[in-house]
Write a structure and sequence with these properties.
This protein is mainly β. The strands form 3 sheets. Strands 5-6-2-1-17-16-12-13 form an 8-stranded mixed sheet, with helices on one face. Strands 9, 10, 11, 14 and 15 form a 5-stranded antiparallel sheet that branches. The chain is built from 3 helices and 17 strands. Strand 3 and strand 4 (81-83) form a beta hairpin. The chain is elongated, with a radius of gyration of 25 Å.
């Protein structure tokens, strides 16, 4: 018998003992938890959205109503605080088909790299839940020399190192600013998703090998042009997450992570609050 099962059984015995002959059971005995938070801060957008769910004693779908709480977000690095605005939306469960109203709290700002933020949900009667996250610091890539292959493919590649990236990034994109016309003119940005499987760890950095020969053909096919486009610029974008996303022990064990509270960093509540940087 697991510890969680033993604790649940002990709570049930306590409920029945205190209820006497009552046939009702109240499963919400953990009064130290008030809200569930889900969301993350993203440095790539000017609008941040966090879902807030009050811990209720009923399992049916609650009516649509504003959140009876004040939600603030404080930049602990600078001391600045903003109040998030409430937005009622309806989310559809793809498995059950049930539409459920929920509160999405919105803040119009862009988080700063390297800063630590604290979100606080303050409700009536002293109800309070909070969480913190530190946005990943800015990382400047180191660009290596071009490599000219040999043989039938003769690929041109170039290594780009990202020092300080200790785990596989969430996504790597290479973008090309090109003109469909060979004589120049208006340009378009074409993004190629490298995923996170094309890199490698090397000397304390995450290294991505940009493959210009392969990408050139992909760009031409995307633009649906017979001739090779004129290149104006090329760049690489790395998306990486904060330390909050790392599971206990650093292992993504689904059997462990599905246990309530295992992957939660919310004080006085449930859920997850992290950050993402580009």
């Amino acid at each position: 018998m697991t510890t969680g099962t033993s604790r649940l059984l002990a709570l049930l015995v306590l409920v029945f003992a205190s209820a006497g002959c009552s046939d009702t059971v109240d499963p919400f005995l953990d009064v130290d938890r008030d809200y569930t938070l889900f969301g993350f801060l993203d440095t790539d957008t000017d609008m941040q959205m966090i879902r807030v769910i009050p811990l209720r004693r009923r399992v049916d779908i609650p009516p649509s109503e504003p959140l009876d709480a004040t939600v603030t977000l404080t930049d602990l690095t600078t001391g600045g605080t903003i109040t998030l605005r409430d937005s009622l939306v309806v989310l559809s469960d793809t498995l059950t088909g049930i539409n459920q109203p929920t509160n999405i709290l919105i803040a119009d700002f862009r988080p700063q790299m390297g800063h630590t933020y604290e979100i606080v949900v303050q409700g009536p009667e002293g109800k309070r839940s909070s969480a913190r996250t530190t946005v990943p610091s800015d990382i400047r890539p180191q660009i290596g020399a071009e490599r000219f292959g040999s043989g039938i493919f003769n690929a041109i590649t170039q290594p780009v190192s990202w020092p300080g990236v200790r785990r596989e990034p969430f996504r790597v994109e290479v973008w090309y600013r090109v003109s469909p016309a060979t004589d120049g003119g208006s340009f378009r940005n074409v993004f190629i998703d490298y995923g996170n499987e094309t890199g490698r760890f090397e000397n304390g950095a995450w290294v991505v090998e940009a493959n210009y020969t392969r990408d050139r053909q992909d760009v031409a096919e995307f633009l649906q042009v017979g001739t090779l486009p004129r290149l104006y610029g090329v760049g690489m974008k790395l998306t990486y997450v904060s330390e909050d996303w790392v599971p206990p022990g650093g292992i993504f064990d689904m059997n462990a992570l599905i246990q309530p509270g295992t992957f939660s960093n919310v004080e006085g509540g449930f859920g997850f609050f992290g950050s993402v940087a580009q």
